[in-house]
Design the sequence.
């Protein structure tokens, strides 16, 4: 009995001390909340993550009280997207789809991208088409390099496998009409990656950030002192060794900015540049006055989804397409008929001040 | 201007196999196929023969020469058409009036004697590097070549014929690297650097690179390429030469060092320290070639190169929070940019296309007897420092051309 009694006392003591400890924690938590509540914006610190993914660099800048999101998290998020839609990863879902006879079941990010791509395809009257992959490969911009450019007959035969009617969705199953049908999401996946990085930050209650991958950006909020995020638009000389000064600086506010340009990735033949952007309707690389299109939209998957399409549409059609829109806008660098390089901007392009 | 055009077309070709149908040199094909005799059919000689056979519109091998019978047999087996005439005495090959140009790929100690004979026989000469075994021979060969301006003399520093190396020379000239002060080079292997010997009596003939009587060792056979590139790209030569080394890995009867380190001091527009090393005892670095300036570093392999801007170069980006643009391809996590979009072909391919052009147009090749002499002298000063255990200085009399 004595022993039992002693035991009971001990337990009570322990209970008491536990109660005190919990109260202490509670108080601590209260203080913590208070300090967070009274903390001014200037207590926010700037965190920058620089990484490497999808064959290019990415950068995440955010303002928070602490380094809530780490490089490990951003790397892993992007690696996971690669496992879905990277053509450079032979084991990716997209490669499985391309090698399949009839199609495969795809995962959520893949599905989001395909649905968006189909929507953009419809809205651009087919100027953006993810089934262009066989053309991209044939013209020497794929993972494997061919020995020569395709002739007219070859282009014609490839075009049989290109077009919006060649793929369709049934739930999570992406069908293809012929085994040779292949898709390429490279034109839109980076924008989506910038969105996903933004979503990751927002899931940790970070609302002042800029995410960038391969020159595609997603922005929300502003700097602690109220200044907006500033975005530079690159000069179009494509010189990575000795970069020219930025062509423009814009402050677009919340949303996304992406760029599609001919100036960095192209081949040359007979003194002419061969663009890496394919016209899905003709089967040939685009040849028009467009040098670069920077698109603003509410999210980066949308901006990135359209930027290649505007490159394909050309100046006149793009200006027509965007004329009355406020949910999307473009800054366009193009070549005039006399060869001079100039630029123009549509109404919906946010944060642009003429020089 | 001519140089720029060449670089442009070579750059185009480097763009990949895609563009072979646009071969900028093809237009001149009907101007004539150069008939070639090859003196020295070891690994290098045979390698060159295989390349020449890939350029049938430019070159036709008609005769081969080697002092070793089994080498001649191997060389003859490379013929796809008419059998090659074969000789064991190079003077007999040189008597052949049907030969326009001669490739010399013999051990270093014989370069001079054979080269002199080739020039005196009135033929164009493609002489493997290093140009000569010693300094007096280099100066003599310059003299003789100058007396025979109609004959092309090209020295086999083939790597710098790649469009990549031309581009780096251009980047240096345009100041992309800023003020350059340091050069780091290695050419390492983990192995004895020997060739198999079918009969022990042939040891010295086959493994001539092991013996001082025939060879300048690792400096002459490997580091000479990088030493040559620096001389050419900067239009300079070392003023002071320091070296150390030894037989540290393979004490197998060899005389030339298997572990060497050469320190070269350059003065001029860019005053630089060049650090050139080679070992047979570690392969981790392999081929390493870095040129370092105040604005950036160029890191080169033989067929690809990366430019790393100095961090302070990126500061102008600090004015903005992000930059939008067409996707920039980077090759590695350190943020370097590729100097050329694709890997280049083997340097020998570019070197012989240039040799063809020089012979057809009777123009001076970029790797000529003057630059060859400058490099040969640099190499010999390095070896003199290495084996003589004392610093060496470049003197007035070495200034050729």
Sequence:
């Amino acid at each position: 009995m004595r022993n039992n009694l002693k035991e009971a006392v001990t337990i009570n003591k322990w209970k008491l001390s536990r109660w005190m400890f919990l109260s202490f924690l509670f108080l601590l938590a209260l203080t913590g909340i208070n300090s967070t509540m009274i903390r001014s914006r200037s207590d926010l610190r700037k965190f920058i993550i620089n990484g490497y993914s999808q064959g290019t660099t990415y950068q995440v800048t955010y303002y928070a009280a602490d380094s809530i999101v780490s490089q490990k998290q951003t790397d892993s998020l992007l690696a996971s997207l690669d496992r879905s839609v990277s053509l450079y990863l032979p084991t990716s879902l997209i490669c499985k789809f391309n090698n399949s006879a009839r199609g495969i079941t795809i995962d959520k990010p893949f599905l989001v991208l395909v649905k968006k791509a189909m929507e953009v395809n419809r809205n651009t009257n087919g100027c953006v088409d993810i089934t262009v992959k066989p053309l991209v490969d044939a013209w020497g911009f794929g993972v494997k390099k061919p020995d020569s450019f395709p002739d007219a007959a070859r282009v014609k035969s490839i075009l049989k496998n290109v077009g919006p009617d060649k793929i369709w969705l049934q739930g999570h199953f992406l069908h293809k009409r012929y085994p040779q049908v292949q898709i390429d999401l490279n034109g839109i996946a980076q924008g989506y990656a910038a969105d996903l990085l933004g979503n990751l930050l927002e899931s940790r209650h970070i609302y002042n950030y800029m995410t960038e991958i391969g020159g595609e950006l997603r922005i929300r909020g502003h700097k602690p002192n109220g200044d907006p995020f500033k975005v530079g638009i690159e000069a179009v000389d494509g010189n990575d060794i000795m970069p020219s000064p930025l062509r423009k600086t814009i402050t677009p506010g919340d949303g996304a900015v992406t760029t599609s340009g001919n100036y960095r990735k192209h081949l040359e033949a007979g003194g002419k540049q061969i663009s890496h952007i394919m016209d899905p309707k003709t089967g040939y690389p685009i040849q028009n006055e467009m040098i670069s299109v920077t698109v603003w939209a509410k999210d980066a998957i949308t901006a990135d989804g359209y930027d290649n399409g505007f490159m394909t549409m050309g100046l006149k059609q793009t200006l027509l397409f965007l004329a009355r829109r406020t949910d999307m806008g473009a800054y366009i660098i193009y070549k005039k008929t006399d060869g001079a390089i100039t630029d123009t901007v549509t109404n919906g392009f946010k944060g642009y001040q003429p020089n | 201007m001519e140089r720029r055009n060449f670089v442009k077309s070579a750059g185009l070709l480097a763009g990949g196999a895609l563009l072979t149908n646009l071969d900028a040199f093809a237009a001149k094909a009907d101007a004539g196929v150069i008939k070639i005799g090859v003196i020295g059919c070891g690994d290098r000689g045979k390698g060159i023969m295989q390349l020449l056979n890939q350029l049938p519109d430019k070159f036709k091998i008609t005769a081969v020469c080697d002092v070793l019978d089994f080498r001649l047999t191997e060389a003859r087996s490379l013929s796809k058409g008419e059998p090659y005439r074969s000789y064991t005495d190079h003077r007999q090959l040189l008597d052949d009036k049907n030969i326009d140009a001669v490739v010399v790929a013999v051990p270093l100690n014989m370069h001079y004697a054979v080269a002199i004979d080739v020039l005196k026989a009135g033929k164009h000469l493609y002489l493997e590097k290093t140009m000569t075994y010693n300094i007096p021979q280099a100066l003599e060969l310059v003299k003789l070549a100058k007396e025979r301006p109609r004959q092309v003399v090209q020295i086999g520093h083939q790597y710098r014929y790649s469009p990549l190396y031309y581009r780096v020379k251009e980047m240096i000239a345009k100041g992309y690297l800023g003020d350059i002060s340091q050069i780091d080079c290695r050419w390492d292997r983990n192995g004895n650097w020997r060739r198999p010997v079918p009969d022990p009596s042939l040891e010295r003939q086959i493994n001539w690179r092991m013996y001082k009587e025939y060879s300048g060792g690792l400096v002459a056979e490997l580091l000479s390429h990088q030493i040559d590139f620096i001389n050419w790209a900067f239009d300079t030569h070392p003023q002071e030469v320091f070296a150390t080394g030894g037989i540290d890995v393979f004490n197998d009867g060899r005389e030339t060092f298997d572990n060497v380190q050469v320190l070269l001091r350059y003065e001029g527009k860019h005053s630089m320290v060049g650090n050139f090393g080679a070992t047979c005892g570690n392969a981790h670095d392999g081929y390493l070639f870095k040129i370092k300036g105040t604005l950036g570093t160029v890191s080169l392999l033989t067929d690809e190169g990366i430019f790393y801007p100095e961090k302070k170069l990126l500061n102008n980006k600090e004015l903005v929070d992000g930059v939008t643009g067409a996707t920039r391809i980077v090759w590695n996590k350190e943020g370097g940019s590729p100097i050329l979009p694709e890997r280049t072909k083997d340097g020998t391919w570019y070197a012989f296309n240039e040799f063809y052009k020089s012979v057809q147009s009777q123009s001076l090749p970029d790797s000529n007897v003057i630059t060859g002499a400058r490099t040969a002298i640099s190499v010999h000063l390095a070896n003199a420092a290495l084996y003589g255990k004392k610093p060496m200085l470049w003197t007035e009399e070495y200034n050729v051309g």
Observations:
- Chain A touches chain B through 48 residues (CB under 8 Å).
- The first strand of chain A starts at residue 45 and ends at 53.
- Chain A has a mean pLDDT of 86.
